[in-house]
Design a protein that fits this description.
Elements: H1 18-21, H2 25-51, H3 56-69, H4 81-84, H5 95-121, H6 127-139, H7 141-146, H8 152-167, H9 174-190, H10 198-211, H11 215-241, H12 249-265, H13 273-282, H14 284-296, H15 316-331, H16 344-347, H17 353-365, H18 368-396, H19 400-412, E1 418-420, E2 430-431, H20 438-445, H21 452-459, E3 463-465, H22 473-476, H23 488-497, E4 498-502, E5 505-513, E6 519-525, E7 529-534, E8 539-541, E9 544-546, E10 551-554, E11 557-563, E12 569-574
Parallel strand pairs: 1-2, 1-3
Antiparallel strand pairs: 3-5, 4-5, 5-12, 6-11, 7-10, 7-12, 8-9, 8-11
Helix pairs in contact: 2-5, 2-6, 2-18, 5-6, 5-8, 6-17, 8-9, 9-11, 10-11, 10-15, 14-17, 17-18
Length: 594
């Protein structure tokens, strides 16, 4: 029997339909232009991967790999990537360069995502229209800048687009079942937000059954994919949990429930509205094209989409299902709490089909001169935006200061020590604090994370990085006009136990001001270790004379210090004469945001 649709056997090879064979020379030229522009986008992405500022999420994502290798991974949820990237620990790069390596891997996944998106579009559109859909997707500002960031999103996007491509392929091959099931399970193991694509998968599966001349066989085919995905997911989860330090089922179920409640149930309507309004300015051509495609979808002769006569008796409902399935992921930005700029990589690939549809209609309905002028205008505007983003952003928001900071930390501390910061920026060291994202700070205020007082008492972190405003020295001394801030107790604990070392780095230590009179002061050491005296003259510590530059071991507990008249500022700094960088570059902000 004839298949309802003959889709792609090879997702990269360009397959010619009868419609394509009638394509004019101009279409071939445009295809060549679009291929060259896609190569430009690829080089732009590589340039951005090497030079664009590392986001706090990317450092945090990297840290899980080293936590896993140290046996400190405490949750199996959304940490499966540690198995995919454990090889990165063999590289001798610093953390910034390790993230860059991860980004390059994500660029490769984006290339494959583009291939699968092409295969999806080619079920309905011409070669040139499909290429334009891909170009529209990758030239979108957030996707250009963050589409290949070292996060879950590029992995999950690659997996879901591949599954959609397979569902639109009406061949019933066992290797396609296994491939889709494997990709589906990896996507879920990497990030639970992959369930946002579940309605799309269901609609496309039902559409496949509806259009089939062998509905029973296709029903079994879709069922096999679902069952195989579940089996692979459970096997992968079981394997992953063996490397988790505390695989407590109740705690993980609670975390999963809390995550769902936080990201969807408690989220306000359109939580990422500000980011969306921002992209309306930078990506007006994309949104205008997308909206036009959504309207044109209902006005065109859909028989032109079809390469098989068997589909001439298609049902209207199948097109409604396709329309909804392709747009549903995008509409998740209306309710998903974490619809930050990087999320558009995950939300937009299928919706980009409608951009390709505009190109398809343009060359089908318009006169020659008009359509070439309009198409050229689209291309020029998208290219200008791409070049502006690719050149300007890595310059104004480069990762040079982050490289400098991380390099100097490794010079100050040649061997790993414990510390805390916003996001585990030095993942080869043991970070003992919590992830200070907006979500993390909300949990802190709700007493769902340890206080810094508890962290310092338990783990004795040797230094911290002030890579978030809450940890800045000036911020610790004032009360912010903000409902989310560190408690006064934690501010005092941090201020009492750390002194400024260099730039954004603070180390364990004490500072005393003896002024113009001699006196004896009592002080408490919370972080035990070797300390170096920094003073203008000799002081007595616990009745023992110590000279400037000399070291002594101070255990946790109470101690005494005395100095002669006019000693002024006296400091005890953790470590044996710690290296102080000579570089005077002042880093204003380690992170600039999205």
């Amino acid at each position: 029997m004839k298949r309802a649709v003959i889709a792609l056997n090879n997702y990269i090879t360009l397959i010619k339909t009868p419609f394509d064979q009638k394509m004019a020379l101009s279409q071939s030229i445009w295809s060549g232009v679009l291929v060259l522009l896609l190569l430009l986008l690829l080089f732009s992405k590589i340039h951005i991967a090497f030079n664009y500022e590392i986001n706090w999420d990317e450092f945090y994502y990297l840290s899980f790999i080293f936590k896993h290798l140290r046996g400190e991974l405490s949750s199996s949820l959304q940490t499966f990537h540690v198995h995919l990237f454990s090889w990165m620990s063999l590289l001798t790069f610093n953390e910034v360069n390790l993230v860059v390596v991860g980004r390059i891997v994500m660029v490769l996944l984006q290339v494959l995502t583009g291939a699968f998106l092409y295969s999806i579009c080619r079920n309905f559109l011409t070669v040139t229209a499909s290429l334009f859909a891909i170009f529209s997707y990758f030239s979108f500002s957030y996707i250009l800048l963050m589409g290949a960031s070292f996060r879950t999103d590029p992995i999950a996007t690659f997996c879901v687009t591949a599954i959609v491509s397979i569902l639109l392929n009406f061949q019933k091959k066992n290797y396609l079942i296994l491939t889709s099931a494997l990709l589906g399970s990896i996507s879920l193991l990497v990030t639970i937000k992959s369930v946002l694509y579940l309605p799309t998968f269901i609609l496309l599966g039902l559409r496949r059954i509806l259009l089939s001349n062998e509905r029973k066989e296709d029903l079994m085919y879709v069922a096999k994919i679902l069952i195989s995905t579940l089996v692979f997911f459970l096997i992968g989860l079981f394997f992953h949990k063996q490397g988790v330090e505390s695989p407590i089922k109740q705690a993980e179920v609670s975390l999963l429930t809390h995550s769902f409640s936080k990201t969807i149930e408690q989220a306000e309507f359109f939580p990422g509205k500000a980011y969306f309004l921002n992209t309306l300015v930078f990506d007006v051509v994309f949104w205008g094209t997308l909206c036009s495609g959504c309207v044109l979808f209902w006005t065109i002769d859909k028989q032109k989409f079809i390469s098989e006569p068997a589909l001439l008796n298609f049902k209207f409902i199948s097109w409604v299902m396709l329309y909804v399935a392709f747009l549903l992921p995008l509409f998740s930005i209306l309710f998903y709490r974490n619809a930050f700029p990087y999320f558009y990589t995950f939300a937009l690939p299928l919706a980009s089909f409608f951009c390709g549809l505009v190109w398809f209609c343009l060359f089908d309905k318009f006169e020659s001169k008009a359509k070439h002028f309009i198409a050229g205008t689209f291309i020029v505007l998208l290219v200008l935006n791409t070049v502006k983003m690719a050149v300007e952003r890595p310059q104004t928001r480069s990762n040079n200061s982050q490289k400098l900071l991380v390099n100097e930390i490794h010079k100050i501390f040649p061997k790993p020590v414990s510390y805390f910061d916003r996001c585990s920026m030095v993942s080869t060291f043991r970070q003992v604090g919590f992830f200070m994202s907006s979500w993390g700070m909300e949990n802190y205020k709700a007493n769902l994370t340890p206080t810094f007082e508890q962290i310092i008492i338990k783990s004795q972190p040797v230094f911290y990085i002030a890579n978030i405003g809450y940890l800045e020295e000036k911020t610790l001394k004032v009360e912010l006009d903000n409902s989310i801030d560190l408690s006064e107790t934690d501010k005092n604990v941090i201020g009492r136990n750390y002194i400024h070392h260099w730039n954004k780095i603070y180390v364990a230590g004490k500072q005393f001001n003896f002024g113009h009179s001699s006196s004896e002061l009592n002080f408490h050491i919370q972080i035990s270790g070797v300390y170096t005296l920094e003073a203008g003259s000799k002081v007595n510590i616990n009745k023992t004379p110590i000279y400037p530059g000399e070291t002594l071991f101070l255990s946790e507990g109470r101690h005494q210090i005395s100095a002669k008249d006019g000693s002024g500022i006296v400091k005890l700094r953790w470590g044996d004469n710690l290296y102080v960088p000579s570089n005077e570059v002042q880093i204003e902000n380690v992170f600039s945001g999205f």
